[in-house]
Each structure stands twice: as structure tokens, then as C-alpha cells.
Batch of 4 targets.
Target 1
Amino acid sequence: MLADKLGIMRTIPGFLDPALKLGQLRKGVSFASAGSGYDDITATTLSALPFRRQLWHFWRYKLLIRALLGPRRAERIVNRATFIISAGTNDMLLNYIASNRSAGPIAMLRYKNHLIARLSNYTQVMRMLGARRFVFVGLPPIGCLPIARTLLGRDPDGCDSDLNQLAASFNSRLIQLSNFVNYQPRMRSAYIDTYTIIRAATDNPQNYGSVFHISSEYCQDVL
């Protein structure tokens, strides 16, 4: 959707798409893997490509585009490209919380810092490969996601406030990382606050269109 709005292309093709044509490399590709995260264990658990493997594909992409356009043009394309990084929800919910449901706040804090440290390292690797423009997407209110409401929801609204606070705390560190990247020479970074957007929509859905009531009874068998 974002690529379409920017007039780049309707959808960003996956780098591993067998139908990918060399000419499409100039406009951009996706290295993402559904179910992955910043933690390698998350990717292993959910049978996805770990982040470091995605970086390896980025390196392969550079080799291909250098062969296609030459070193100078290839480097210019990578330098001017915008890299959108969005992960963390799978790490928190489907990896850590799912296997450590009794984890206390200190353990959660350590895991959050672990994820931020890994992302910081990944960002430095991407910088070494020529990336200069980053967009970091924050976590949503993960305590209100269906799996969290089913396993842990105990607040009046059915959410888990501890998880939401963890997401907000993670986002604060993500903003710090984004600001740090901005201070680096010839680097640009932005942060997308999905938490506030989604929370506003869930707290006051009537402000965003029609409201439909869905009973939790319809979801129990699925969840």
C-alpha cells in the first residue's frame, strides 16, 4: 500500500519470488519473512527466515544489482532506498510470552533490551552494506491482540495492560534508536507510531466509521 501511494509500484515483490525479474531490482524488493522477528529463536519456532538471513539476502541483492547496473549506480540506489523495518510482535507474543507466561517484569525488561540490542546491530550491518534511510515501525498494543486477550487478558476491556506497557516501553527504546541513527553522518531515520493509531481506533471506534459488535463466543473455537 505504501509503495502504491508513493507511486513506486502496486506491491513490493519478494526477493525470493521465483517470478522476480532483474529489472524489478531497481525499484525495490522485500526481504521480509512472515513469522520472523529480531530474535532468531522466533524465526526457528515459527519456521521463518531469521533477520540475519534476510540481511544475507540483502547482500545478495547488492551483488545482483551491481552486476546489472555497475558499482556506482548500484551504490546510489541502495543509498537512496528507504528500508522499512517492522518486527517485534512475534518475538513478544509468539515466542517469549507464549513460552514464559509467568515471566516477571524484570525478565520482560531484559528481553526487550535484548531485542533492541539485536536491532541496533542489524542496523549497523545494513549501514555497512550501504543503507542510509530507515523507517522503524513501533509495536501495536500487543496486550489487546486476540492471542493476548485469550491467554492473558484480565483487564476490564479484555486486554493485558502489562503487555501494552511492555510494547510502549519497547517503542520508547525504538524511538531512541531512531534518533541515534539520525545523528549518524549521512543517515536518515523515521519512526511510525502504530501503538497510538491502533489504540485510538480500539478505544473510540465510532470515530473511524461503522462499529460492529462481535461476541467472543464466535472466536473461542478458533483461538
Target 2
Amino acid sequence: MVKEMTETNLRSAYAGESQAHMRYLIYSERAEKNKFPNVARLFQSFP
């Protein structure tokens, strides 16, 4: 029971972090296109 919950929680956390990472990459690309290189670098610095 506990092992199943741990696996479920880890999968959920990983999915959330993956989505956040993709959002940061998209924001970085938008900032570069809109001529905000410093903002783009800021978003690229997030893991």
C-alpha cells in the first residue's frame, strides 16, 4: 500500500516538473522572439 502510494506520488511529481520545464522553455523562446534576451536567459536557468 505505502509502496504504491510512493510510486504514484513520484510519478505525479515527475509529470508536474516535466510540464513546468517545458513551460519555461516555451517562455524562453517567446522572450527571445520579443527581443528580451535577459528574460530568455532567466527562463533557461531553471532546471
Target 3
Amino acid sequence: MEPRTTVRLMPMHMRFVNGISRAYDDEFPPELQGRVDETQFTHAINQINNTLTDYWPCLFCVCYGYACCICTGGLSLLCPHMCISDAEQYARTLIDRINQRPCFEDAGVQWKLVKRCGRSYIEVSFPNTNYTKKGTLGGYEKVLTQSPTPRSSAASDADSPTLL
């Protein structure tokens, strides 16, 4: 498996007990510059945030769940939990569809909703190599990303390539 660079989009709004957040950071990470178009990224993260917001339980349901938690031994949290588990399921399904979009698939960019003990984030990962089109058949070839080598100041014009 090739090495991948990851970017984490942290939660921005209210989190539930299981760690899922109502929305995640929608600022374009500079690490994705040159790999993904900023409008494609913004469209994808807005779709994820809108899906979570649409399926998020109403304020009354969440307040009821937390307020009656002690009296019901935590059973009152099942009401908002059902809505939030639906939101998580639909967000994961949407992320699977986002991963299949050509703008992300061709660049090797993968989105993932990561949930850990009481917290969550969206992980955007991409390979440490670039993919460039090869020929007219549409195949892709891996090209190592390298910084340009500095030219020495002693190089003469005869050594430099000329454009015709």
C-alpha cells in the first residue's frame, strides 16, 4: 500500500454522545491545492454537512434526551440516537458516492467519516504521488512528486533548452 497524506476536517457544531457532529469544517485545506478544485471540495463538504443537518434531531428531542437522562437511566437518549444514527448512515453513504466522483477518484482522493471514542472527524486522504493522463486511452500513470532542482548560477545559455 502506498503512503498517503491525510487531512482532518474537525467538528464545527454540536456533537452527540457518540461523537458524531452536526457539521464539519468546510474550509479548503491548502494540502489539497492542485489536487482537487476548491469548488468541488466545497460542494462535497456542503453536501455532507447538509445531510447531517437534515437528519439531525430537533432541539426539543436532544434537550429531552439529555434532561431526562438521569431519571430514565439513559434510555431517553435513544430517541435522539435513532435520528443521529440515521444521519451517520446517510452521511457514510454520501461519502461513498463522493469517493466515486471522477474529480476525486482520478486524483486518488478518498473521504472517510472517522468515529472514535466520543469524537469524530472527516478524513480526506490522498497518495503522495501524482496521477497524470497517459496517451489517448485514458489510463493513468503514477509520477513521483519531486521539487524542481535548483539551477546553478554558473549555467550558461548554451546549456539551457530553447523553445522552438
Target 4
Amino acid sequence: MSLLYAKEKKLDLYRNLGINIDDSSSLNTVTPSLINKQFRRLSLSLHPDKSNEPDSEVKQIQWDHLQLSQNILLNHKKEYDNWYQRAFLRGNKELLYKLQAVKKGNKANPVSYHELEAIKEHGQSLRKLLHFKMHVSNWQDPTFEIETNESNKNYETCLFRVTLVKREQYMVENELNKWFLKIDIPVTVKYYSENNRQRDDDLVVYVSARNVQTVINILRSLLSEGQLHPDILEFDSAVNYKYFAFKHNVELDSGLSSLLYNSANNPITM
């Protein structure tokens, strides 16, 4: 991995080292001694040889990024800082100017209603990124869009509420999807519970099957096996199935029945 890789992936190397950068002047305060100090501090928890946690793959990625951050900031800091200002600080600076103009009531350059709305939307998008632990990749284009798959028309009947043992790998959506496939449960993650941060030992995630038949297959499989994977504490339908069950047959209205009757003499017309 190199400087080019960091740019392509839009990596915040300062954040990887636990160094807070608020503006361009903050970049000049970061010295090689500070970089090495932060690297040594984080190595105590992220180095593969010093970690006893089971999430070795995630830890390895974090360790690789930590090494990359130290290497680039020690050897290519000037070039990285020039790119960093364009990628991360420009939009932040522009937003700050607008907020300052509102605060001072600058009549010479008043902020319009539409600009204020844009600032509010910007703040909302950042709060969403923070909540979902997503990387702020580009301050110049803060548009936040949630991609949804509209192929499943039976969303509620195909949704499960799953309680898992709290592991770092399960907090990563792609990793969790792979894990479900590995244990032969064909579902995909829809969203995580907002209360997971307050849960110490477990987490709740909502997953969806592709269609109703897949839901039936999953339930039959779980019923026949009699037990779940040890990391799955609960696996229940998100919506109680009694709301979709009918215990009694309802006779069709005779008038409606006669209208639906189809014959050569009494065809159905639309």
C-alpha cells in the first residue's frame, strides 16, 4: 500500500493515528515525534501479536492502515497534506465561513434561506455518517444517500430481528453478510438497531430474506436443526406472523361472485 492507495481510498491517515485535525494550521503542528508517539501507543492494542481478540481479520486491516499512516506521514507528509486539504478541509472551511457570517449578521454578504437549508442538510448528513460509522470521504460533496434494493416487495414478511454476540466483525455490514452465507442463512443486512451502542454484550441487526419462500426455507431449517450458531442469541421474525394469518374462511359476497363468474354468456369485462 502506498500514497496513491491512500488517495484512491480517501483514507484519513491522521484519524488512523488518533490525531485531530480541525483546519490547515493544525497540519503544521503534527511532528514526526508525535506521529511515532501515536503509532507506538496504538500498536499496543492493534499489533496482531498483542491482540487476543477473535476478530483477527479486522485487527489485521487496522494494523495495516496504522503502519501505512505512519509511513506516509513520515516520508510523504507534504504531498499528502496538500491532497488532504482539498479532500477534507476545503468544504469544512467553507461551511465555517457561512456559519460565522450568520453569527455576525454580516449584512454585506447575507446568507440566504437556501444556503441555510444547505448547511442544515450538511450537518444532518454528517450526523448520519457518524451514527453509521461511515468515513467522511469528501467534504466538497456531502450528499448522503441510502441505497435500497426494491426487488423485495414483501419487506415486512421477510424481515428478521437477530440478536448476536457483540463482535467487531459483526458491526461491519459486508463481513456480516458473508458470515450469514457461511453458516447457510441466506439473508442480507438491512439496518442495525440504534441502541447497539448502549448494549454491552450483544447487538441487534435486522436482516431480510429475498422472498417468502426463502423465509419458509430458513424457518424449516432452523426448526429441523433445533439449535442456532452459538453467536446467534435470538432469531425471530421482526413482525409477528399472527398479523398475516387467517383462521377462518370468509365467503365471497354473492353479488361480487356473480360479477366474477366467467362464461361465454357472461364474460368478465374491464
